[in-house]
C-alpha cells in the first residue's frame, strides 16, 4: 500500500512538472512528442521502482493489460519450472541414497545369518552394532525421502496452477512447456520410486528370512542342550 501511494505521488509530481514545462513556452510539435514520451518513460521507471509493476518495459503506452499478464504468467512458469527441477533432483537423489542404504542393510543381515554359530560373542556383537547403525541410516534416508516428496508434490501443484494461469492468459507456449516439464518430472520420480519399492520388497523378504533362520538356530541350540542333558540325567539315575 505504501509503495502504491509513493507511485501515485511520483506520477502526480511528474504530471505537474510536465504541465509547467509545457505551459512555460510553446514548443514545436516534435518537441511536444519528445516531452510526452519522456514523461511516460519516467512514470514507467518510477512505478517499477515503487513496486507497482514487476515487469520491465520501455514503452508503457504500447503494452496492454493482457500483454502484461501474459508476461507475468511466463515469468511464473519459468520460476515454477526452476522449483520443480530442483525438488525433482533432490527427491530422486534421496530415493537413490535410500535404496543404497536398504541394499547395504540386506547384505549385512545376510552376512550375519550366514555366520550364525561361527562367530565369537565379540564378533557377533560387533556385527550387530553395524546392523543397528545401518538400520538407523535407512530410517534417516526414509525420512529425508518423505520430506523431499512433500516439497515435490507442492511444486507439482504449483506448476499445474501456473500452467493453467498461463493458458487462460493466452501464453499457450509457456503453458505447454510447463505441462511437459511436469510430465517429465513425474516420469523420472516414478522410475526412482520403482527402485525403492523393489528394495523395500527385498528388505521385507530379508526380515522374514531372518526370523525363520533365527528360529531354526534357537531350536537347534535347544536340541543340542537337550542331548547333552540326557546322559547326565541317565547317569544320575544309575
TrEMBL record:
Residues covered by region (Disordered): 217-238
Principal subcellular localisation of the protein: mitochondrion
CC annotations in GO: mitochondrion
InterPro entries: Smac/DIABLO-like_sf, Smac_DIABLO
Keywords: Apoptosis, Coiled coil, Mitochondrion, Transit peptide
Localization in the cell: Mitochondrion
Superkingdom of the source species: Eukaryota
Coiled coil: 182-209
Keyword Iron: no
Single GO BP term: positive regulation of apoptotic process
Family of this protein: Belongs to the Smac/DIABLO protein family.
Name of the protein described by the UniProt record: Direct IAP-binding protein with low pI
Species of the source: Anabas testudineus (Climbing perch)
